[in-house]
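Late entry, evening session. Most of the bench is empty. Finally got around to the prediction I had been postponing all week. Sequence below, unchanged from the version circulated by S.P.
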Amino acid sequence: MVIPVTKIGRSLVVRAKLNGSRDARLILDTGAEITVLSHAVALDAGLLPSQTVATVTLNTAGGSVRADVFRVGSVSLGEAEAKNVTTAVHDLPDAPAGVDGLLGLTFLDQFLVTVDAQKGELYLKPRQ
């Protein structure tokens, strides 16, 4: 599957769909262990406050922060879909305008991932 990628500053951004209805613009972050959504997006998607399953410490550029963790029923990038994606809620202080969070390994680990930043394409192949 080929997913379009937009470059914003030095970040690669993809359009995701949460639970089949809420769009989100997420920074592609292969170094992030967990997918992260902003409070506003999590609230708008109906994921908070009742679905918190735990808390986690996130190591950010600004230092360590505690964040609530919940599961998103589905996260889709085009035809690529992952179910029950573990996600943290945290507002990224230095995120570019219009960016709603990070797409981390809790989504990406379910696929073989190739990025062609020059072409602006993300290639995802489901793992068997």
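Two things to note before I forget:
Residues 2-126 form a domain with the Cathepsin D, subunit A; domain 1 fold (CATH 2.40.70.10).
The chain has a mean pLDDT of 91.
Will write this up properly tomorrow.
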